[in-house]
Design brief:
Blueprint lengths: L2 H10 L1 H37 L5 H19 L2 H12 L7 H27 L2 H9 L4 H31 L11 H9 L8 H34 L1
Helix pairs in contact: 1-2, 1-9, 2-3, 2-5, 2-8, 3-5, 4-5, 5-7, 6-7, 7-9, 8-9
Length: 231
């Protein structure tokens, strides 16, 4: 059986296609859950990191956030996933999908926090001074003046992080989860296909489609924000 025949069989055979779609659903579930957790966690860490260190109550949270970002960004994602699956959440019956979402969410949060922090710092300090001169508090100035401008600056980098997150989820098969990559491996070891090239190519196309769709959405958002700047 040629490569073309094997590749066509994946999409024409209901059993093979269902196997791929089952893995795809798992990949999307982990990606969406981890992205949401990462955005929330990253925003909190970024805001804590930017808080004034003059307040003694903020020093410990700032230190914790700094250590968190350093450790997570300085260690491999695969190692973090293993620790989460076989140490932290090594509980009988604990859902692996939840473990994966937490692991990838924590990892993504460290990178998102740096993106958001950089975006906030990129806003001209004059904007903050203008808000304070109008009698606005530091929190109000940050929320209503600085952050809206920072969002426009961080969307591209946040989008890149989301794309990287989707591709990184391909390692969840290492802890026994059945995602898109695992589905391709399973089909490649079968008797009919007996070759990894065709199913891996099919999986690559699924990943490419997801990334392309996400990139398209991000460009639309960027375009609308640029239009709002011209008004």
């Amino acid at each position: 059986m040629t490569f073309v025949e094997k590749f066509t069989l994946i999409f024409s055979n209901a059993k093979y296609l269902d196997s791929m779609l089952t893995g795809l659903r798992m990949t999307l579930a982990i990606s969406v859950g981890a992205a949401a957790l990462g955005l929330v966690l990253g925003t909190i860490v970024a805001l804590v990191g930017l808080a004034s260190s003059k307040n003694p109550l903020v020093k410990i949270p700032k230190l914790i956030c700094a250590v968190y970002v350093t450790v997570i960004r300085g260690t491999p994602m695969a190692l973090q996933l293993f620790i989460m699956a076989f140490v932290v959440f090594a509980i009988r019956g604990f859902p692996l999908v939840v473990t994966a979402i937490i692991a990838f969410g924590i990892n993504s949060g460290a990178y998102v926090s740096e993106n958001i922090r950089g975006g906030i710092l990129s806003v001209d300090v004059g904007q903050t001074e203008a808000g304070r001169s109008l009698g606005l508090s530091a929190g109000t100035t940050l929320w209503y003046i600085v952050i809206p401008q920072a969002i426009k600056n961080v969307i591209p980098s946040i989008g890149n992080e989301l794309i990287a997150l989707i591709k990184e989820t391909s390692i969840v098969s290492m802890i026994g989860m059945y995602d898109l990559t695992a589905a391709a491996k399973n089909l490649g070891s079968g008797q009919n296909l007996a070759n990894y090239l065709a199913p891996m190519t099919a999986a690559a196309l699924f990943y490419l489609a997801i990334v392309y769709l996400l990139t398209f959405v991000i460009k639309i958002i960027e375009g609308r924000l640029r239009q709002s700047d011209r008004r």
